[in-house]
Design brief:
By secondary structure, this protein is α/β, with parallel strands linked by helices. The protein has helices at about 5-15, 25-35, 95-100, 130-135, 180-200, 215-225, 225-230, 260-270, 285-290, 325-345, 375-385, 395-400, 405-415; strands at about 40-45, 50, 55, 60-65, 75, 90-95, 105, 125-130, 140-150, 155-160, 170-175, 205-215, 235-240, 250, 275-280, 300-305, 345-350, 390, 420-424. It binds zinc ion (ZN).
């Protein structure tokens, strides 16, 4: 089976679960991720202080509905988990249509779609429905029931750590708190899980840390409890909205010129010239926390369509048809290429810096042969010229305009011939 199909199938398996920032939905999700990669599941008690925030009470839901006077469920959580405002407190009451309408959210501009609403930090209850559904409801008395609980419990998150040759780390972070929404962010969970599985099968220079966490409060909790581990992060990516058919968008880290920003820019230029680079902004997903000034970690955010900018965002139309196997597979490949570049980004020293070494007598100056002899020779000359110990392969790649893969291969050839020496 091809990778894209497998990624889409994994998103399909996660789709029906009613996730939230705490509770059994996120636990079940982490359980399914843990079947594919080595995952440690951590539980942080409600009430724990994490910087300026407090870990909230745990929310769980069993059922919810609005019944009309004939007993028919006119809004039914069993049909779609977006029908309940996420984090709604329990309620069981009889209300008039007018009273009920004050607790119902719809999208008049897309009358068939159900919006996604949350109320994490204010205790209230509510329903979401399609606008057509609400319009068809007549005056009269309705029975509302939300069978949920909001009690002291835990915030759950998952961490997959893959030790490498070095202690220095690459971070991958994806939020795992949205209910039945596919692009935001089952796409991120699926791509991150498959990326971890790929990296776990090979030897890496860097150590990798994958976090599957509730948005905002999860990243804040992890950072508050792992201040020392955070110091080891050299590069990082937040993955979100990465399964739709739109062009790639890479949002730079706060530093804007860190290696992850440059690596992502180079990979997009090589593999997806239609991709866009976005400047850093303090709004978005968990890069906001990783890039807060106290940490200022080199963490960017890779997306396809930008969150909030596509009409399906935070609605029932962000479903399994909105993401595609091909797009998921291409996103996985772009992420893998970015990490591959970082793994291979090294610095060399030219061992014969006084005039050019005679490449011809070493068989390194072909006038014919090879698929692109000119490109190879050009790469060798750039490497010999700029490898004075201060430039990395990525520096040389940017200055020469040559593809990183060509330079990396040429550096190995020159090192093999005793012309370059790897600087550790
Ligand atoms: Zn979202």
């Amino acid at each position: 089976m091809d990778t894209g199909r497998e990624l889409h199938d994994f998103a399909r398996a996660l789709y029906p679960i009613c996730r939230s920032i705490t509770g059994n939905g996120i636990r079940e999700t982490l359980g399914l991720i843990g079947e594919r990669i080595p995952l440690r599941i951590l539980e942080v008690p409600s009430g724990t202080q994490v910087f300026d925030w407090t870990v909230p009470k745990e929310w769980n839901i069993r059922d919810a509905h609005v019944k009309d006077s004939t007993g028919k469920r006119v809004i039914d959580f069993q049909k779609h988990n977006l029908h309940v405002v996420n984090y709604s407190i329990p309620v069981h009451a009889k209300v008039s249509l007018e009273e009920l309408t004050a607790h119902i959210f719809t999208l008049p501009e897309h009358p068939d779609w159900i919006p996604y609403k949350t109320s994490y930090y204010k205790e209230t209850w509510g329903f979401c429905a399609s606008h057509n559904q609400l319009s068809s409801m007549c005056d009269g008395e309705y029975e509302v029931c939300i069978d949920s609980s909001l009690e002291p419990g835990y915030l759950s998150y998952g961490e997959c750590f893959l030790p490498g040759e070095h202690e220095e780390e690459i971070l991958v972070s994806a939020h795992a708190c949205h209910p039945s929404l596919a692009n935001d962010n089952l796409s991120g969970l699926a791509v991150a899980t498959f990326l971890a599985a790929q990296l776990a099968r090979r030897k890496n220079r860097y150590s990798y840390r994958f976090l599957f966490i509730p948005g905002t409060i999860g990243a804040i909790t992890w950072l508050a409890q792992n201040k020392d581990a955070a110091k080891k992060i050299r590069h990082g990516l937040v993955l979100t909205c990465i399964g739709d058919r739109g062009s790639f968008h890479y949002k730079k880290s706060r530093r804007e010129n860190s290696d992850i920003d440059r690596a992502a820019a180079h990979v997009l230029k090589q593999q997806n010239p239609a991709g866009f680079l976005l400047p850093f902004s303090p709004y978005g997903y968990d890069e906001r926390q990783y890039c807060s000034p106290g940490f200022d970690l080199p963490v960017g955010c890779l997306m396809r369509s930008v969150w909030g900018k596509f009409p399906e965002y935070h609605t029932s139309a962000d479903n399994l048809d909105f993401i595609s196997a091909d797009a998921l597979s291409e996103s996985l490949s772009v992420c893998a290429s970015i990490f591959d570049l970082l793994e291979k980004n090294r610095s060399f020293k030219n061992l014969t810096p006084f005039c050019e070494p005679q490449l011809g007598k070493r068989g390194l100056y072909p006038s014919t042969g090879g698929s692109s002899p000119e490109l190879e020779v050009n790469a060798r000359l750039w490497l010999l010229n700029l490898s004075d110990g201060t430039n990395s392969l990525l520096d040389i790649c940017e200055r020469s305009g040559l593809p990183f893969a060509v330079l990396s291969e040429a550096a190995d050839v020159l090192a093999h011939n005793g012309l370059l020496e790897l600087i550790s």
